[in-house]
Design a protein that fits this description.
Length: 181
């Protein structure tokens, strides 16, 4: 199924045709929610392009990969060939963990991540993560298919679910008696 096929199925489910922009926004939201909620091997990547330096502090920023969606399900990263992981901590608690070793946090607003504690030597950072797949647009919908090839229909059903949440809000605001409950 291509993006166009998913759009056609979605329009059949809701028995309506929406503005193209809204349709693709719903499609991408559905895609991101489905892919982000499943722990699928096909969506996992490892980035090892960053390194630590002696003197790095909990405020030394490292840039996340451009296709980063979420950290791996365990929220771990590794330094070099070490087998003991660094554990993800909440961004708003970074001050509490600033001097504690083997912790890291993400600033999603700036697409940066940081290691806490101190680093004694330069090492490669090994960051397992779930990547963000290509967004659907009107330009690529005819040729782009979701990564999850066996479950394309789930995107259309999720889109319909998202749409009905929007639609019911609009109906609830309508002054027409037709929509009273």
């Amino acid at each position: 199924m291509t993006g166009e096929d998913i759009k056609t199925m979605f329009e059949g489910l809701i028995e309506d045709s929406l503005d193209e922009t809204l349709t693709y926004q719903l499609m991408n939201q559905a895609k991101d929610e489905v892919e982000g909620s499943l722990d699928l091997e096909i969506l996992k990547k490892i980035d090892s392009s960053k390194t630590t330096s002696p003197g790095d502090t909990y405020l030394t920023a490292k840039t996340l990969p451009t296709d980063f969606l979420l950290p791996n399900t365990k929220g771990e990263l590794y330094l070099g060939s070490e087998t003991i992981p660094y554990l993800l901590v909440p961004f708003d608690q970074r001050q509490q963990y600033q001097s504690i070793a083997r912790r890291w946090y993400i600033d999603f607003a700036t697409s940066q991540f940081y290691l806490t504690g101190s680093v004694s030597e330069a090492k490669t950072i090994v960051l397992p993560y779930i990547y963000k797949t290509t967004d659907f647009t009107s330009a690529n919908a005819a040729t782009t298919s979701p990564v999850l090839s066996k479950w394309h229909q789930i995107y259309a059903f999720k889109m319909a679910d998202l749409y009905h949440a929007i639609d019911m809000t609009e109906l609830g605001r309508s002054p027409a008696k037709t929509y009273e409950r």
